[in-house]
Design brief:
The protein is built from eight helices and seven strands, in the order E-H-H-E-H-H-E-H-E-E-H-H-E-H-E. It has a seven-stranded mixed beta sheet, with helices on both faces. The mean pLDDT is 91. The chain is globular, with a radius of gyration of 17 Å. It is an alpha/beta fold. The protein has a single domain, classed as Carbamate kinase (3-Layer(aba) Sandwich), CATH 3.40.1160. It is 41% helix and 16% strand. It starts with a strand and ends with a strand. The longest helix has 23 residues. Helix 2 packs parallel to helix 8, helix 3 runs antiparallel to helix 4 and helix 6 packs antiparallel against helix 7.
Length: 232
């Protein structure tokens, strides 16, 4: 039986402004090392839009003088995720023979060691795509890699008393992120994905994606630095 792990890889670490070549090289080396240890291991990457998504969405809003359509903004962000995902797929070469997935509900199995996915449609971020892929592929955990090391009790930019959390329930997470998706919204896990993950009883691990040694610990089920979100 294959061992599938789902990684939601934030665009903020793949392409914070432009593609982060150094990070992608280091990420590739760590991932291939992990896969070569056991042929049963498989990984699914869902790649975010990052800097390119935000830049193009901002340009769209400025050109239309803030009378923009949120659905159109989402589509712009989705196209950025697809460009980043195609880059990642190309980098992993023979390990990833399947085309980039753009509909997470269409995949129940795949050939090869790695599957790469991108944004699907307006209304949520790639976080939700990762949850849908976990549901379809039978995975019980999503590893959410971004530019934050832990989820905080509140937004640390707004609340000086906010503290990092080792764990929290989905009920607590929903209180933090709310229920409404806004294109480009910067939250630890998007509200739509949070609701769906709670319904499925998934576990989500959030961690700093650029910390490759820590990522290797997460992949190997060793003690790590991050936040675990799960059922009550």
């Amino acid at each position: 039986m294959k061992n599938i792990k789902i990684l939601s890889v934030g665009g903020s670490i793949v392409a914070p402004d432009n593609p982060d070549v150094s990070f992608i090289k280091e990420f590739k080396e760590a991932i291939i090392g992990y896969l070569q240890e056991d042929p049963r291991r498989t990984l699914v990457f869902i790649i975010g839009g990052g800097g390119p998504a935000r830049q193009y969405q901002k340009a769209y809003r400025e050109i239309l003088q803030n009378v923009s359509d949120p659905i159109e903004q989402d589509w712009i962000g989705i196209m950025a995720t697809r460009l980043n995902a195609q880059l990642v797929k190309g980098v992993f070469g023979e390990y990833c023979s399947h085309e980039v997935v753009t509909d997470p509900t269409s995949v129940t199995s795949f050939e090869g060691s790695i599957l790469v996915a991108a944004g699907w449609k307006p209304g949520f971020s790639t976080d939700n795509d990762s949850v849908l892929l976990a549901e379809n592929l039978g995975a019980d955990t999503v590893i959410n890699l971004s530019n934050i090391a832990k989820v905080y009790s509140a937004d640390p930019k707004k609340d000086p008393d906010a503290v990092p959390l080792d764990s929290l329930t989905w009920t607590e997470m929903r209180k933090l992120v709310g229920d409404t998706w806004i294109p480009g919204k910067n939250v630890p896990f998007d509200p739509v994905a949070t609701k769906k993950a709670a319904e499925l009883g998934l576990k989500v691990i959030t961690a700093e994606g650029r910390d490759i040694p820590n990522l290797e610990k997460i992949l190997r089920d060793n003690p790590f630095y991050g936040t675990t979100i799960g059922p009550e």
